Amino acid sequence: MTRWSPLALVIGLLAAVNLYGSTAASAAGPLTVAQAISQQNGASATVRGYVVGQPTATNTVVRSNYPSDYALALADSASETGTSRMLYVQIPTAFRSSWGLRTNPSLLGRQIDVTGTLSAYFSHPGMTSSTAFAFATTTPPPTTPPCESYYTVACDKTGAALKSALNTIISNQRKLSYEQVWDALKVTDQDPDNTSNVILLYSGISRAKSLSGSTSANWNREHVWAKSHGDFGIATGPGTDLHHLRPEDVDVNATRGNLDFDNGGSPVPEASGSFVDGDSFEPRDAVKGDVARMIFYMAVRYEGTDGFANLELNNSVSNGTAPYMGKLSVLKQWNEQDPPDAFEQRRNQVIYDSYQQNRNPFIDHPEWVSAIWP
User: Fold this and answer.
1) Do the record's keywords include Zinc (predicted)?
2) Which one, of 63, 329, 322, lies nearest residue 192 by Cα?
C-alpha cells in the first residue's frame, strides 16, 4: 500500500482542481475579450472578439491605412473605440497573409476566434504565439448590443427622447469642405480588394480613385439625402456630411437625381439590381440597408438648430424640394433586410477616426430605427 505525505496529497488535490478547471473553461467555449484582458497569466486560450483595428503602440489602434500585417486588436463590440477594452493579438508569420489587416482590410468588424498565449503585447493586455485563427461560427452577437460609452446619454431611451439624445451626441462633429470630400471618399469607400479603387454605391462597381470628375465614366459625389430636399446644396454641414455622401458613377447619379426611395421601377442599365421610375429609386439589395441608415442619420443629425432645415422622414415619394425624404415604411424594411456589413462598419469607423469624429448611430445600433420610428 502506497503512503502519501500531507504535502503530496495537497499537490495532488491542486492538480486535480487545475485539471477540472481547465476542462470546465474549455467546455464553456471561447473567452470574451474582457475575460482575456483580466487573465494575462501566460496560459493558452481561445478568445472570441470583433476585429476593431491594428495596434501600433500601447494606446494607439488604427482603423485604416494599416502599416503592416503584424497585429490586430479585438474587442467585445464591433464599434469599440477604447483601447483599454481591446486585446492586442500578435500575428505570426504563417498567418499574416490571411489575417493581417493591410492585406485583408475587410476583416474590420468581423467576429473571429484566436488561440494563443495570454500575455502582453505592445505593453498592453494581449495574445502572443497564436496558433489558430478562424471566423466565429457560433454564438452570434446579441440582438441588442450594449450601450457603449459614446452613446451614454442615449442609453435606455426611446422615441423622441432617443432621437434628441442622439442628435446631441452626433452634432459634435468636425466639418469638411466640399472639395475635401473628394479625397475623403477615396479613403472611406476604398475597395478592400484593390486599394487604388473605390466601390460605387448603387452600381457596386470598383473604379479607379483617379477617375473622379463630372464626365461620363467618371465617379462623383452622390448625396444620398438629395441636397434639394431642404435646399442645403453643397453647404458645409449637410452638403458635405460624409455619412450620406458616397462615390457613384456620373450617369447613375444623374439617373437617381433627387428621387425619394421606394421599391419598383425599370432596371437601371449602369447599376445592375437598381430600379427607377418617375418618382422613386430602388438601390441594389446589397446596399439597401446602407441607404436607409444614411437617411435615418440625416433625419437625426439635422434638426433645424444650426441654420439648416429640419430634415424629416415621411411616407411620401413626392417630396420635391421640401426638407423630407421617403418612403419611411420602405426604408425601415431595408434596414431590417440588409444589416450592417464589414464595409459599412469600417466606413463608419474611418469617418469617426479620421474625418468628422462623429458616428452614424444606426450602423452601431440598427435596432434604434424602430425605437424612434415604430
Assistant:
1) no
2) 63
